[in-house]
Amino acid sequence: MKLAFVISLQETSFSALSQGQDLKKSLSRLRELGYQGVELAVRDPETVDVELVKEVVQSYNLEVPAIGTGQAYLEEGLSLSSPDPDVRQKTRERLKKHVQFASIFRAGVIIGLIRGTIVEGVDFSKGRKWVVKGIRECCQAAQEKGIQVYLEPLNRYEINFMNTLHEGADLIAEVGEKNLYLLADTFHMNIEEPSIIQSLESMADLIGHVHVADSNRWAPGCGHLDFASIVGTLERISYKGFLSAEILPRPSFQKAAELTVTFFQNFHFISH
Q1: In Å, what is the CA distance from 89 to each residue of 76, 97, 113, 164, 233?
Q2: Which ranges carry the Xylose isomerase-like TIM barrel domain (predicted)?
């Protein structure tokens, strides 16, 4: 396994993201600490200097395992489950732009918050069909680029639709696209899964990407999650992808990044 850190390329209200206003400085520090990758959270790819980002990422020899899309929901209200058909259409088009951006880095596209919340007054089955349609279109666009899509279950306090890995697996089956996989996030799993270990084991064939954060969303080792068992399970099920730290930048971005890499290197979980 390899280790990545999640940063935002744009200003965001989402607290569990470090903002990389000075991208060179941020990526330089990650590389110095021993990270092999950086996961990029992007609200709107059209507002990003793609060539600059590509140049900086390559200059520090970092991989980009995934592209986050949730800021489009938080900052603009884009949602695959919106009762407004124009919003749903705009969301589907935005995700296709994320696919184009991700393809430059051979990265996967994450569908988490951007699937939205099925609001009161909307028939749940109808809302689910809207989400399935949006995910399917994203997967088909990603398939044309040869990249994957990662479906992220989120806890019930953030979203009311698909909170566990098993619910995610059901949705994957309904979408029916072969490049759609689960994103397992330890913070959300700690809230929703009866057993993190059993869920990882039962979903082994579907796990395409992993987010790590401790129980308090701080760096691993700062809460009560048993990461020795969690990462040991990932090794046992032959997960060979990235562990991306999506954590609160507490007490600072630099310290959070340092705590994360030190924690995992001490357990010899991360390849060098």
Answers
A1: 14, 13, 16, 26, 39
A2: 29-255
Q: In angstroms, rounded to a whole number, what is the distance separating the alpha carbons of residues 94 and 212?
A: 26
CA 53, CA 42: separation in Å to the nearest integer? 12
Q: Which helix (H) or strand (E) element contains residue 5?
A: strand 2-8
Q: Which of 39, 192, 193, 246 is catalytic?
A: 246
* Domains of the chain with CATH codes: 2-266 (3.20.20.150)
Q: Is 258 a catalytic residue?
A: no
Q: Give DSSP secondary structure letters for 99-154.
A: HHHHHHHT-EEEESGGG----TTS-HHHHHHHHHHHHHHHHHHHHHHT--EEE---
- For residue 63, the 8-state DSSP code is B
Q: Which two tokens stand for residue 128?
A: 């689910």
Annotated catalytic residue within 39, 152, 192, 193: 152
Q: Could you count the other beta carbons within 10 Å of the beta carbon of residue 224?
A: 8
What crossing angle do the helices spanning 50-59 and 85-105 adopt, rounded to 10°? 40
The whole-angstrom separation of Cα 113 and Cα 35 is 26
The model's pLDDT over 220-267, given as tens digits with 9 standing for 90+, comes to 999 999 999 999 999 999 999 999 999 999 999 999 999 999 999 887
> What is the secondary structure of 152-196 as a DSSP string?
----TTT-SS--SHHHHHHHHHHH--TTEEEEEEHHHHHHH-S-H
DSSP reduced 3-state for 253: helix
Q: Does the active-site annotation cover 193? A: no
Distance CA 40, CA 187 (A): 19
